[in-house]
Amino acid sequence: MAESQDVEPKAAASVILLREGDAGVQIYLLRRHRKASFMSSSYVFPGGIAEDFETDERMVAGRELFEESGVLLSTTQTQAAQREAWRKALNVEKADPAVVMANAPIDVESLTYYAHWITPSVEKRRYSAKFFIAVMPDDQVASPDNKETVDEVWVTPEEALARSKELALPPPQLRTCYELLEPATRGVEGILDFARAGAAHAHPILPRACASEEGLTLLLPWDADYESKGNGASMPMSPDHRLAWGASRFILSPEHGWVHR
After folding, report:
1. Digitized pLDDT (tens) for each residue of the chain, 261 residues in all
2. Element of type H or E holding 226
3. Taking Cα atoms as reference points, which of 119, 112, 111 lies closest to residue 204?
4. S-S: 48 plus which of 64, 82, 103, 128, CB 3.0-4.6 Å?
5. What is the DSSP annotation of 91-116?
6. Rounded to whole angstroms, how far apart are CA atoms 125 and 52?
7. Cα–Cα distance between 144 and 44 in angstroms, integer?
8. What count of Cα atoms within 13 Å lies in the side-chain half-sphere of residue 218?
9. How far apart are CA 46 and CA 37, in angstroms?
10. Antiparallel, parallel or unpaired: β 43-44 and 112-118
């Protein structure tokens, strides 16, 4: 399995948007366009790459959330018509994000760090993505941008895992839903508490690819075979690290899509 050469990961950020639903805490997922160059047709958390002027990943996460879902986490009170005009300026008129977002400053304090994933170095497109948790504002409605994203779904972590093949969940989304199963039983605040506790032990997650009898496999940094059988750049993690628990690899199955175990 050849490693891509000289591919530096681009800085990116995503938002795990939460709300309280009738069946429990739900997570917002957007389906990427089938012609997208990365994770096409997969349901993912809203997110994207950083602009040159952005140095705070929370600002990137907030802007991308707004562009892709229309949800604005701002420090100022806004009206639906204002938000729609600003979103159009970004997505259709290609306005300067720095100018548009100056009218509606992102409330970075509303974004709680959750995880940091780095695309395996065997991939041609690589991202160093920070994941943040945010709570859906009561007075707003999310919707796809019909450009990069074409469909949406609100699901509990349990529902997302049960529908993982249908939703074509990529490994980071799959792992996140797996991790949130128990915290979600304690509501949104339970998830936020879980995220805050984990942030104190932050460690990048850089999977390594390997071939196995079961098919393409991605090894997480605490897997026993991570260093001996994985390909590409590595960032190993001690098996007793706070984040190193449960399933430690992903296997791409023709029948089930990515399977986490």
Report:
1. 444 456 899 999 999 999 999 999 999 999 998 766 566 689 999 999 998 778 899 999 999 999 999 999 998 889 999 999 999 999 898 888 888 888 888 999 999 999 999 999 988 899 999 999 999 999 999 999 988 899 999 999 999 999 999 999 999 999 999 999 999 999 999 999 999 999 999 999 999 999 888 889 999 999 999 999 999 999 999 999 999 999 999 999 989 999 999
2. helix 226-229
3. 119
4. 64
5. HTS---HHHHHHTS-B-GGG-EEEEE
6. 18
7. 12
8. 24
9. 16
10. unpaired
Nearest-10 Cα torsion for 234, 235, 241, 245: -40
Q: What are phi and psi of 205, to 5 degrees?
A: -105, 105
Is-above-0.90 flag for pTM?
yes
Amino acid at 80: A
Residue 64 main-chain phi, psi, to 5 deg: -65, -35
CATH architecture, domain defined by 10-205: Alpha-Beta Complex (3.90)
For residue 47 the two structure tokens come to: 């997110």
**Is 256 strand, coil or helix?**
coil
| Chain CA centroid to CA 136, Å | 16
